[in-house]
């Protein structure tokens, strides 16, 4: 008995990681798990991206050259599911695992074993999802929104789709619980709530969103399952159900979901801008309130995805107003970032470049979002490429750029070495040029009347589609530079504890690379360094 | 095909934005409401542009002036409740100003009462079915032959040689100009959506439910749209074509197609 | 030792249970899916997965209980467990919310619309002409044929009484635990899970009744759908809760809990009360109104 315990402590006091595959399979260490999440996310980004390239190749010119329509729809569906649930969400959870314990001075995540499980569910979920590509009837082809009745026409893939979504939900819920408990319960005594870094704050709120909506998604797909196999009629009018009911339940999850993909990005940007402006974050508290308001509003706007389903006028009016309101707290964030830069002393390392591009391009995506909120216009935009342009602006130069920024920002802290800065800058400039080349023309396509989710199009859409396809290839290939940066990450100069000269916060007080176990003991450090977010120091 | 690629590349020079292929904006359309919708769209666009100019302008100035390389020392101010309130309040006002006209248009959009003509549109995988309520005239409308042949994988037919590729049907919907047409939408299988950009109307066709919308085309002509809700493999191949014709022409068309012509139409623009 | 344990947060150093759990999930999900797709062997794959997961749960909790008995968990770890359990229950609430949402939406929106209300005159006129929907209904298609309604009286009422009583007995057991009165604790805890199992048994009876004599089935339109999924998922939770209570009872027998420290007991109690509250909501909205 006693010895067993002693061992456990031995272990976690002194040795570093276990060796070999067992380290990764059995680990309870937040840094290991964070790394696994990030690597998994990158792989998924490439798979989902490769599917995007299939889409763009087919759409490069009119006529059907490479794939059949049914396969095209499978690509669209899988691309979205993989990017949303496999690339963006795990990337942010990975960052949370790595950074939150270090930023709040905690020894690890609060529930380390469960932490390991929430990760290891993901390979199972996506293994199942990807396997559907090889099944009779092919992968799901109903769009990532899985609207019935169409989704019920899926072949053998159908139950696999449903259960892989269940697994993704399970993983996210356990991850969210872990993050909430860690933030509330594991802070070092001096880290009061108001002193918490923005990244921790945004993640705390995101975790609550996850807890509230992932179970609802699980419920929605469960109803699909029973409608398909057990003769229930949730989405069947003849039985007193309604196909549109699924859309309501789905988007009750779906809209908060899109903020789940952007709030942590806001957090990352709010960390990076002050560092490279050498100036404290402007309006830290206002930022917290803004984030909370966005989270609240995100629960009462879902029907803006459904302005063409024939809702009562009153509902349309309500959802339009509520949706437009979200521009206000989001604006507060943008304005505060600008105010943080104002009269700072900026330098432009790769993380800063990505953060700046984020502010510019996310704002553009936000603007198109606001236009979409206006019902009569949305009746024109809906299910056209204008929508595709909107959400790629908020997701690619939005979420993805923020993830890139975070990776470059914290990489030296993880590896202990500076990455190849020139390669980083090249990666940034190519990505930024090509991302706009890819997605900006889609605004025009949508306005000119090109519907989304089509494998072939009328000739008047030819030119912009070609531009977009060229951009997509360019953007895709540019991402290989990022892989190069990662592969050479340990080759650069030894990094200091602070890494960047404007960096403030607890994570910068531990050496680089961060030791396998940080903050086993409550920390007592120079407050102005450790708690730059504290208005009173 | 080489041709398309080269034109595409040349097209990168915005100069050619003149020619139709480079249509940049939402059509103004041929109904009162499509024009209003266009105005709303442009209003929102200009509001965003203005705000964008302010925000990005401030950022760019800051990026140019406040850089370490210029040897500036960073100020340390960190909050001001005043400005926070200011830049919360102003956007709220702007948004209200945008919402009010939008609401007005929405109310008109919903009002499909006392139409001159009622058509029941039913979505099928993958074609449309039209039924003129009072003329008891009904027919299917599916992708036109030339497109159908050209659309096959590696058909060898250059889409550029097919006119209105994928936007042409065997039997278009015909309506009299100036008549208030009520469209009753439903579906036979999965969700579809009936969309004609020039009328600025789009609604989902839902099995077991009937959706209502209306339009009043003020200009004779042929207007093309597409199914706008994913409905399976041929979702991209069920276009919507509406021919708006003079009232008399419509009456003749009804007669010629064996429809009931008890109620004849006069031009009431 | 406990002194040593108290000064820092206990971080287990590696565990093989999670990966076992993932493998179990893989088999379970693949099994169910292939089975639903009509491949018989899927059933056995599913069972294999289920067995693995049960093994994982037993092993995992066994480890945690062991560590707990060795006193390596300090107050902070205890708080983590409490918060974890609380937010887990919250996510469960949201899961049920989805189905209640479906129920309310169908009742307050869909049925009236199919009957031609609101901007849906033509829905009724063209597709379901003459149909006047009133809850409970199996829809304008009269899916599954005529059926009887599962009213609030009889079995459901008895079940309500049972579940409410079980909450009381559980609370008595808890107080006894705090007061160190083991006799009362054992009997009332036992009473609680026995009542739980009786509830599940009667629920099964109710289903048999519904299927054999009332023609009330999953296929009975939206009413059957909401009725069976809501009560079904609730029944599943009662079963789990009862099993958890049983486990706790064994641990009481093994003297695992002290009047001061007995979180496992409280966690299960929370869960049981949650199941109870859901039932009350069910009774009101599914059986009664
Ligand atoms: C990261 C993800 C993300 C984010 C952050 C957003 C943000 C917003 N989205 Fe977007 N959206 C998606 C992801 C996202 N969206 C996706 C994936 C879809 C498609 C789903 C599918 O169908 O497949 C979608 C679709 C979508 C629709 C449905 C379109 C349709 O299908 O017809 C609408 C409609 O209202 C909408 C609106 C908005 C609004 C108002 C915001 C706002 O939050 C934006 C707020 C930000 C700004 C406005 C810019 C900064 C603000 C200022 C500078 C202040 C001053 C500005 C003003 C006062 C105007 N989105
Ligand atoms: C976070 C989410 C996310 C991300 C990051 C992306 C990234 C991209 N998306 Fe996607 N997309 C969605 C979310 C996302 N998308 C969603 C939700 C939909 C809606 C789906 C639906 O309608 O149901 C959608 C739909 C969608 C469409 C519309 C499809 C249709 O309507 O039929 C298109 C078309 O161009 C597209 C393109 C792209 C491109 C070019 C990228 C690029 O940014 C991708 C760049 C990355 C790579 C290219 C991979 C890395 C590089 C390589 C792989 C190098 C080459 C190596 C090899 C090929 C091995 N996406
Ligand atoms: Cu019919 Cu898309
Ligand atoms: Cu949304």
**Helix fraction bin of chain B:** 25-40%
Count of strand segments of chain A: 0
Kindly report how far apart the N and C termini of chain A lie: 47 Å
Low-confidence stretches of chain B: 1-20
> Counting H and I runs of at least 4 residues, what is the number of helices of chain B?
5
Measured on Cα atoms, how large is the radius of gyration of chain A? Answer: 23 Å
Description:
The complex is a heterotrimer of chains A (537), B (269) and C (289). Chain A has 537 residues and is mostly helical. Chain A is built from 18 helices and no strands. Chain B is 33% helix and 22% strand. Chain B contains 5 helices and 10 strands, in the order αααβββαβββββββα. Chain B has a 5-stranded mixed beta sheet with strand order 3-2-1-5-8, with no helix packed on it. A 3-stranded mixed beta sheet of chain B has the order 4-10-9, covered by helices on one side. In chain B, helix 2 (32-65) packs antiparallel against helix 3. In chain C, helix 4 packs parallel to helix 9 (263-288), helix 6 (155-179) runs antiparallel to helix 7 and helix 7 (182-213) runs antiparallel to helix 8. Chain C is globular, with a radius of gyration of 23 Å. Residues 1-6 of chain C have low confidence and may be disordered. One heme-A sits between chains A (145, 258, 261-262, 304-305, 323, 326-327, 330-331, 334, 363, 366-367, 369-370, 372-373, 378, 381-382, 387, 390-391, 394-395, 398-399) and B (48, 51, 55, 91, 94-95).
């Amino acid at each position: 008995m006693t010895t067993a315990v002693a061992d456990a402590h031995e272990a976690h006091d002194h040795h570093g990681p276990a060796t070999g595959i067992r380290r990764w399979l059995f680990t309870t260490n937040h840094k290991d798990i964070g790394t696994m999440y990030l690597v998994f996310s990158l792989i998924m980004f490439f798979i989902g991206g490769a599917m995007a390239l299939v889409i763009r190749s087919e759409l490069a010119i009119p006529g059907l050259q490479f794939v059949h329509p049914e396969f095209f729809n499978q690509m669209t569906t899988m691309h979205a599911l993989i990017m949303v649930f496999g690339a963006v969400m795990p990337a942010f959870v990975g960052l949370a695992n790595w950074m939150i314990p270090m930023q709040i001075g905690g020894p690890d995540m609060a529930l380390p074993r469960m932490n390991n499980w929430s990760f290891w569910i993901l390979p199972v979920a996506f293994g199942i999802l990807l396997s559907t590509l090889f099944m009779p009837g092919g992968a799901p082809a109903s769009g990532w929104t899985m609207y019935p009745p169409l989704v019920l026409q899926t072949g053998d893939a159908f139950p696999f789709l449903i259960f892989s979504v269940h697994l993704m939900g399970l993983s996210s819920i356990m991850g969210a619980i872990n993050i909430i408990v860690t933030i509330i319960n594991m802070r070092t005594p001096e880290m009061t709530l108001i002193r918490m870094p923005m990244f921790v704050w945004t993640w705390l709120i995101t975790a609550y969103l996850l807890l509230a909506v992932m179970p609802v998604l699980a419920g929605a797909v469960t109803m699909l399952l029973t409608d398909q196999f057990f003769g229930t009629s949730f989405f069947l009018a003849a039985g007193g159900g309604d196909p549109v009911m699924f859309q309501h339940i789905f988007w009750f999850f779906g809209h908060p979901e899109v903020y789940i993909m952007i709030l942590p990005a806001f957090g990352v940007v709010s960390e990076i801008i002050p560092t490279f402006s050498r100036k404290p974050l402007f309006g830290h508290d206002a930022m917290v309130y803004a984030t909370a308001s966005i989270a609240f509003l995100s629960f009462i706007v879902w029907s803006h995805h459904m302005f063409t389903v024939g809702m009562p006028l009153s509902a349309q009016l309500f959802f339009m107003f509520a949706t437009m309101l979200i521009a206000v707290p989001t604006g507060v964030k943008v304005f505060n970032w600008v105010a943080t830069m104002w009269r700072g002393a900026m330098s432009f390392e790769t993380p800063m470049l990505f953060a700046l591009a984020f502010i510019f391009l996310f704002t553009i995506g936000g603007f198109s979002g606001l236009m979409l909120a206006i019902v009569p216009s949305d009746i024109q935009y809906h299910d056209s490429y204008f929508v595709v342009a909107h959400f790629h602006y908020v997701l690619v130069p939005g979420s993805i750029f923020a993830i890139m920024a975070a990776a470059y920002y914290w990489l030296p802290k993880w590896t202990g070495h500076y990455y190849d800065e020139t390669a980083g800058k090249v990666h940034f400039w190519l990505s930024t040029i090509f991302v706009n080349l890819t997605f900006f023309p889609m605004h025009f396509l949508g306005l000119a009347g090109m519907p989304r989710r089509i494998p072939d199009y009328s000739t008047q859409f030819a030119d912009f589609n070609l531009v977009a396809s060229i951009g997509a290839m360019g953007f895709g290939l540019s991402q290989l530079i990022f892989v190069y940066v990662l592969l050479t990450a340990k080759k650069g100069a030894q990094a200091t504890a602070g890494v960047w000269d404007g960096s403030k916060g607890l994570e910068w007080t531990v050496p680089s690379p961060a030791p396998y176990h940080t903050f086993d003991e409550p920390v007592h450090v120079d407050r102005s360094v450790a708690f730059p977010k504290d208005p009173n120091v | 095909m080489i041709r398309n690629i080269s034109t595409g590349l040349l097209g990168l020079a915005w100069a050619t934005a003149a020619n139709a292929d480079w249509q940049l904006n939402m059509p103004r359309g041929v109904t009162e409401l499509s024009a209003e919708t266009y105005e709303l769209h442009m209003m929102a666009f200009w509001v965003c542009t203005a705000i964008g100019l302010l925000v990005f302008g401030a950022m760019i100035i800051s990026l140019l002036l406040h850089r370490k390389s210029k040897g500036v020392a960073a100020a340390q101010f960190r909050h001001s409740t005043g400005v926070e309130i200011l830049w919360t309040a102003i956007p709220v006002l702007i948004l209200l100003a945008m919402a009010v006209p939008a609401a007005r248009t929405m109310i008109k959009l919903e009002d499909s009462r006392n139409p001159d003509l009622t058509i029941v549109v039913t979505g099928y995988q993958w074609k449309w079915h039209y039924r003129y309520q009072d003329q008891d005239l009904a027919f299917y409308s599916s992708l036109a032959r030339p497109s159908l042949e050209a659309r096959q994988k590696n058909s060898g037919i250059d889409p550029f040689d097919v006119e209105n590729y994928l936007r042409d049907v065997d039997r278009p919907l015909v309506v009299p100009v100036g008549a208030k047409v009520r469209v009753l939408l439903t579906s036979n299988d999965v969700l579809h959506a009936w969309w004609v950009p020039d009328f600025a109307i789009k609604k989902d066709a839902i099995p077991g439910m009937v959706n209502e919308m209306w339009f009043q085309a003020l200009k004779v002509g042929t207007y093309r749209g597409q199914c706008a809700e994913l409905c399976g493999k041929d979702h991209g191949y069920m276009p919507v074509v509406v021919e708006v014709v003079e009232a008399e022409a419509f009456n003749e068309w009804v007669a010629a197609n064996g429809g009931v012509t008890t109620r004849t139409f006069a031009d009431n623009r | 030792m406990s002194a040593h344990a108290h000064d820092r947060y206990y971080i287990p150093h590696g565990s093989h249970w999670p990966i076992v759990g993932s493998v179990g999930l893989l088999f379970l999900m693949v099994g169910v899916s292939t089975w639903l797709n009509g491949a018989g062997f899927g059933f056995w794959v599913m069972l294999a997965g289920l067995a693995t997961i049960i093994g994982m749960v037993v092993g995992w909790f066994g480890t945690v209980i062991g560590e707990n008995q060795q006193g390596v968990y300090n107050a902070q770890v205890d708080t983590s467990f409490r918060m974890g359990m609380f937010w887990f229950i919250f996510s469960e609430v949201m899961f049920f919310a989805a189905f209640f949402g479906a129920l309310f939406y169908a009742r307050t929106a869909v049925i009236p619309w199919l009957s031609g209300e609101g901007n849906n005159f033509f829905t009724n006129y063209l597709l379901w002409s003459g149909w006047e929907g009133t809850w409970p209904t199996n829809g304008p298609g009269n899916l599954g044929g005529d059926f009887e309604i599962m009213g609030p009286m009889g079995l459901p009422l008895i079940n309500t009484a049972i579940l409410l009583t079980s909450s009381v007995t559980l609370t008595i057991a808890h107080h006894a635990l705090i007061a160190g009165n083991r006799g009362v604790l054992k009997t009332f805890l036992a009473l609680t899970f026995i009542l739980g199992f009786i509830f599940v048994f009667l629920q099964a009876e109710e289903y048999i009744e519904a299927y054999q004599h009332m023609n009330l089935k999953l296929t009975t339109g939206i009413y059957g759908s909401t009725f069976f999924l809501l009560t079904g998922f609730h029944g599943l939770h009662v079963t789990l809760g009862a099993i958890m209570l049983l486990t706790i009872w064994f641990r009481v027998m093994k003297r695992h809990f002290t009047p001061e420290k007995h979180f496992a007991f409280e966690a299960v109690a929370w869960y049981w009360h949650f199941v109870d509250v859901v039932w009350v909501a069910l009774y009101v909205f599914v059986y009664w109104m």
